[in-house]
């Protein structure tokens, strides 16, 4: 039986993700958006390329959540994008309402689906989606750690002039300026980067990673990153559909891990067919642990503020 992935939001991330999923022959795709004609046009364009791309996945564009019925995975990318000079947190009130409504509608039609949130600010939106749907915590997660880690991976490979595939990285914490890259767990062919680069160089690459999304927003001027975010979400979709069980950083619900409770935050997860099948607690330094707590406090502050505002509507 063919799997079905529904993508809520037919912007550049959503439409590129639809392309990635179809061209990898992973699943049929429903691309949903509130704008009439937009998802239908993108779906038709992608369908017309099937002969060249050698896949036979069905791609449906829709404005009706009823078409998402029976989805194995629902990915929410809908929301406003950042503009130059704007932080992810400035999107919070607008995107909160969009994500909560999308999550409720999607789960009403696909109650057995696993939910992956991509909309920013990622960690807050993931919590709100979980709260709105009452899904088991294993079936709700946010895509951010994969993206942050591959950005750091790319920067390390560029700096050292090595093949990207030789570089392995790990980034924890919130998806934003307070993310926590772990140099001790970043390696080139198994050798920690702390053995290959000066501390000042590592810090420069870490800072570039923290500003990775903003750097692209500032260059594009009229939008944000979408190729790498779509690829990152696609890796998570592939891992779940194929039940490959990978250790990937993702925004998962914490119940005491890393000393944190009742929050979604980027941590290393065992991701598989059931969703988040476990959280791995790494041995991290006191400074890294403190940075992770600071990251969590920022997420919690934004979360309390948005929940208060939503309750007042």
- What topology, given as strand order, has the largest sheet? 3-2-1-4-5-6
Summarize the amount of helix as a percent range: 40-55%
Reported CATH architecture of the largest domain: Alpha-Beta Complex
What is the overall pLDDT average? 95
Tally of DSSP helical segments: 10
State the distance separating the first and last CA atoms.
Answer: 43 Å
Can you describe what's shown?
The protein is α/β, with parallel strands linked by helices. It folds into 2 domains: 4-142, Rossmann fold; 145-304, L-2-Hydroxyisocaproate Dehydrogenase, Chain A, domain 2, CATH 3.90.110.10. Helices cover 43% and strands 20% of the residues. It has 10 helices and 14 strands. It has a 6-stranded parallel sheet, sandwiched between helices. α4 links the parallel β4 (73-76) and β5 (114-117). The longest helix has 27 residues, at 286-312. The N and C termini lie far apart (43 Å). The mean pLDDT is 95.
Question: Strands, helices and their partners?
Answer:
Elements: E1 4-8, H1 12-23, E2 28-32, H2 38-47, H3 50-53, E3 59-62, E4 73-76, H4 92-109, E5 114-117, H5 122-133, E6 140-142, H6 145-160, E7 167-168, E8 171-172, E9 180-181, E10 187-188, E11 191-192, H7 199-210, H8 212-220, H9 227-241, E12 246-255, E13 261-272, E14 275-279, H10 286-312
Parallel strand pairs: 1-2, 1-4, 2-3, 4-5, 5-6
Antiparallel strand pairs: 7-10, 8-9, 10-11, 12-13, 13-14
């Amino acid at each position: 039986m063919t799997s079905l992935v529904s993508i809520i939001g037919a912007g550049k991330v959503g439409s590129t993700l639809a392309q990635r999923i179809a061209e990898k022959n992973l699943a049929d795709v429903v691309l949903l958006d509130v704008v009439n004609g937009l998802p239908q046009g993108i779906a038709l364009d992608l369908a017309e390329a099937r002969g060249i791309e050698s896949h036979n996945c069905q791609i449906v564009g829709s404005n009706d959540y009823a078409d998402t019925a029976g989805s194995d995975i629902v990915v929410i990318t809908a929301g406003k994008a950042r503009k130059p000079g704007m932080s992810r947190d400035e999107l919070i009130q607008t995107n909160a309402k969009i994500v909560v409504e999308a999550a409720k509608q999607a789960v009403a039609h696909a109650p057995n689906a696993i939910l992956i949130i991509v909309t920013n600010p990622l960690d807050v939106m993931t919590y709100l989606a979980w709260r709105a749907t009452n899904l088991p915590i294993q079936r709700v997660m946010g895509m951010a750690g994969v993206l942050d880690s591959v950005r750091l991976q790319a920067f390390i490979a560029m700096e050292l002039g090595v093949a990207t595939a030789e570089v392995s990285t790990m980034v924890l914490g919130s998806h934003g300026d307070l993310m926590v890259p772990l140099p001790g767990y970043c390696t080139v062919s198994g050798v920690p980067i702390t053995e290959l680069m000066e501390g000042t160089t590592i810090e420069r690459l870490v800072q570039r990673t923290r500003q990775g999304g903003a750097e692209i927003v500032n260059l594009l001027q009229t939008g944000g990153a979408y190729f790498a975010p779509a690829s990152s979400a696609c890796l998570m979709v592939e891992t779940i559909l194929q039940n490959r069980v990978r250790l990937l950083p993702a925004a998962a619900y914490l119940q005491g891990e890393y000393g944190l409770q009742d929050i979604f935050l980027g941590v290393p997860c065992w991701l598989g067919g059931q969703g988040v099948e476990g959280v791995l607690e790494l041995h991290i330094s006191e400074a890294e642990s403190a940075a992770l707590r600071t990251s969590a406090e920022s997420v919690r502050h934004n979360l309390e503020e948005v929940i208060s505002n939503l309750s007042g509507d």
